[in-house]
Amino acid sequence: MSQQIEYQKRVAVRHDVDVFIAGGGPAGVAAALVAARQGRKVFLAEGHSCLGGMGTAGLVPVFMMFGDGVNFLADGIGREVREELSKEKGPNFPGGDNSIPAELLKRVYDRLLLAAGVEFSFHTQVVDVLHDGGVVQAAICNAKSGFFAVKAKVFIDCTGDGDLAAWAGAPYEKGDTDGSMMPGTLCSVWTDIDVDRFRDSGVRVQETLMKVFAEDKLFTVNDPHHPGMFRVGEHIMGGNIGHAFGVDATDERSLTKFLIEGRQRLPEFEAFYKKYIPGYEKMVLVQTGSLLGIRESRRVQGDYVLNVDDFIARAVFADEIGRYCYPVDIHPSKPDTTKYAEFEEEFRKTLRYGKGESYGIPYRCLTPRGMDNLLVAGRCISSDRKIQGSIRVMPGCYITGQAAGMAAAIAIEQQTTTRGFAVAELQRRLLGMGAFLPNAAG
After folding, report:
1. Mean pLDDT of all residues in 383-389
2. d(CA 89, CA 79)
3. Which Pfam family, giving just one, matches this sequence (predicted)?
């Protein structure tokens, strides 16, 4: 047994608010904006130096789809963020509508939350939770100034990893039946790339990579899954390249190991691109993400577990708070060609929608079992592993985040639990802010 000590500390209640939000990624931003615009007093704690999570600190270079080719599914906050970012980019931005220049997105998020009157602080980690009988009483935070507590009527977990919910005693699952999870990626930014020359060459990076594995000893890990580079400027590309196999986002020792490994392996990709891919001969690494890109960790178990059968059925729910359409995108947990072929079959063919198709997201996925004043939004909502591979991306997080923020506001207004109000009222208010809810009651 490891050595243990007891530690006790009295801390000040720095914030006593209506809504506390843990995590300022896309779900947290959406939840905070909606709750604040409904007149609620909101405090958001973000552990990093900026809002946005994977799209900013993590340097993920591109949004996945906001719509199904017919409908704008992430309407409401998702549309607002996308439009504000487009204004920041200006006309004729070379990366396209879904590209993410991280610094511009940081400014958008800052401006939106400040304008809405959301109180928030960076470098503020939630480290513990006080709870009793399914009621969260306070979140314990740690920041540069020390420990402090936040009291709230409703708490929303937007950490991505379900930290607050797990520490409050909510049930959760993690990984597959063996505990294996999708690998992460240390995203990166590269400059001095002749993008037009690359496009004119017709060279296919994935096919070239597979040939190199057989002919050249460039890589420490011959990983057949290569998401690739995405344009984020005139001569700038964002790299979603390389996988951190075996990373556990709920363990700082694991994160440390794979951040180091990711930085050490990037010169291998640089050598590959310079040698084999036209237009990349003079590429220069600008930076790597200050957050490791994480695709999977905890899935908090709620009153309903959204599952792959719902995806296949294009499910409709009476209590749905949104609809989404991204394919089931589960990166293989090992660098194995057979597993990669199975991924390609699912992602490209089997578990992918046609134009205009989507699945419903029920409100019950946001309400953790046994918890009366806690909601979850973003990557950690109640789902099975398959559909988590779809809902985890940023537009999906806007959808669940705005619903959680609205639900918190209603519960506080009506002085009830997160299950104590009519979902029809939640749907009515979401529709009023532009959410896509074709199956809403009435």
Report:
1. 97
2. 15
3. FAD_oxidored
Count up the domains in the chain and report the number: 2
The two tokens of residue 104 are 């511009």
Residue 376 has pLDDT above 80, yes or no: yes
pLDDT of residue 441: 75
* Helix (H) / strand (E) containing 107: helix 102-116
Alpha helix ranges (H) inside 252-382: 252-276, 308-313, 337-345
Structure tokens at 328: 């089931």
Residue written as tokens 């996988």? 243
Mean pLDDT of all residues in 26-34? 98
Q: Would you say residue 227 has pLDDT above 70?
A: yes
What is the pLDDT confidence band of residue 1, given thresholds at 50, 70 and 90?
low
Residue 306 forms beta bridges with which residues? 383
Question: Domain range for residue 235?
Answer: 188-288
With a CB cutoff of 8 Å and minimum separation 6, the contacts of 35 are 18, 19, 21, 42, 405, 406, 408, 409
In the prediction, which pLDDT does 179 show?
86
Asked whether the beta carbons of 37 and 112 are under 8 A apart, the reply is: no
Is the dihedral angle over the CA atoms 299, 303, 309, 312 positive or is it negative?
A: negative
Q: Which two tokens stand for residue 263?
A: 């930085």
pLDDT at 442 over 90: no
For residue 1, being part of any structural domain is answered with no
CA nearest to 165, candidates 404, 388, 403, 398: 404
pLDDT in tens, 301-327: 999 999 999 999 999 999 999 999 999
Q: What is the CA radius of gyration of the chain?
A: 22
φ, ψ (nearest 5 deg) of residue 207: -65, -40
CA dist 232 and 253 (Å) reads 31
Is residue 2, in this structure, part of any structural domain at all? no
- Reported as a single tens digit per residue, the pLDDT across 129-177 is 999 999 999 999 999 999 999 999 999 999 999 999 999 999 999 999 8
Domain annotation covers residue 65: yes
- 442: buried, middle or exposed (CB in 10 Å: 19+, 13-18, 0-12)? exposed
Spell out the residues 6+ positions from residue 266 whose beta carbon is closer than 8 angstroms to its own. 186, 188, 241, 242, 285, 288
Q: Residue 341: which CATH number?
A: 3.50.50.60
Between helix 77-89 and helix 102-116 the angle, nearest 10°, is 130
